[in-house]
Amino acid sequence: MKALQYSVVILPKLDNEEELRQLRERFDPTYYQLAPYVPMILPFTPATLEELQAANDFISQTRRKLHPWAVDFRTCIESEDRLLLVPASGGEELVRLHEELHGAKTMTLIDEPPYAPLLVLARIPDPEHRREARAEVEKLGRTLGIVDSLSLTGTMPGGEIRLVAHYPFGIGRVDYYDRLLP
Predict the structure, then answer these.
(1) In 3D, which of 95, 92, 91 has the Cα closest to residue 113?
(2) How many CA atoms lie within 13 A of 74 on its CB side?
(3) d(CA 38, CA 63)
């Protein structure tokens, strides 16, 4: 049985959110689960509740010293069943935040490509629909996003993604949407 996994993501506020929502509603069968997001920490499974609480505390402390910034997305690409937006500017800050959230750099036995910040716009299983959706996204020209918080998500054993907590930059408030239980 697959365990519940947690991820840290950014849910930027997008200037063309309504157009993208309509597109996602038409093409993405899971559009209702989570808004477009930038993955910061890939899925992990905490061994204990204390480990999950420590991750929660670390995210909360990290975001307190951050300030909002803009990310300009101009290129839409396909990867597997996903439509992704590539930042034209503002991506350097995403890379720095990713590195800060990861802490110490670990050595690995396999070569891993460096972190590339991408906005996961939609999951569209049908290749023809994915190409059609990509053409519509490209007609928008650009998508401007404001990054002003971090979010913790939980991926259920069946694949459903849920928002667990939201951490606005600079303030001590944390909004919890689901329990912190493994």
Answers:
(1) 95
(2) 5
(3) 15
Q: What pLDDT, on a 0 to 100 scale, did the predictor assign at position 105?
A: 62
Contact 63, 169 (CB under 8 A): yes
Residue 182 has pLDDT above 60, yes or no: no
Lowest mean pLDDT among 16-25, 51-60, 97-106, 156-165: 97-106
How do the domains of the chain map onto residue ranges? 5-103+113-176
Burial class of 113 by CB neighbour count within 10 A (0 to 12, 13 to 18, 19+)? exposed
Residues 6+ apart with CB under 8 A from 106: none
CATH number of 5-103+113-176: 3.90.1140.10
